[in-house]
Design a protein that fits this description.
- The strands form three sheets. This protein has a two-stranded antiparallel sheet with strand order 1-2. Strands 3-4 form a two-stranded antiparallel sheet.
- A hairpin with a 2-residue loop joins strand 1 and strand 2.
- It has eight helices and six strands, in the order H-H-H-H-E-E-E-E-H-E-E-H-H-H.
- It has one domain.
- The two termini are about 30 Å apart.
- The longest helix is centred in the C-terminal third of the chain and has 18 residues.
- By secondary structure, the protein is of the alpha+beta class.
Amino acid sequence: MTERYHAHREGYNAAGPFDKSQPAAPEPGYPPGEECAQCGGRCCKEHGCVLAPEDLLRALAGKEPDEESLLALFQDEKKGWYAIEYLSTPQGACFYVRMRHKCYTFIGVDAMGECVALGTGGCLLSMEERPRGGRMLKSSPDRRCVQHYTAEQMCADWQPYQELLGRIYRDWHARMTDDGTFDRCDEAYFAWLREKRTEPQ
């Protein structure tokens, strides 16, 4: 597990996690404006973009989404860019998949963090490869960016996967709590932050 969470410290330099033979993202979305470069990707440094189910299916490259295929993807050293998190709603927990945060695992206990796909020059993913949450974020010069993939839409989209995602989350959350994985991730994250603060600007 140590190598796995350290592998996510700086994001990947590979071409991306998606199989190029799979269908491209359906919506054109909103290309990032110049203001994104000016602010340095503030939103990307606070939370990984939310996936829609079709984004996950593309990453699975035609495999059926079940516990075996999802764990294989989440734990892949090169393609494991993702984490399961949940949103509390009046109806209960809504489990969904987002981009993973640097230094952390595929179980999203880290409420905030820097996306693994954020590199020094911006997002490592092309516009077509980005999750729906990234494609549907409309930037604004006044930094009042608007997310057009709403929480309501996200929960509706992920509804068919609640049992599967919830089971994986609860099982692995218990395992990682017991073996100290989350504590080690926190230590790695704070060490990474200290390194970032000492880098020349």
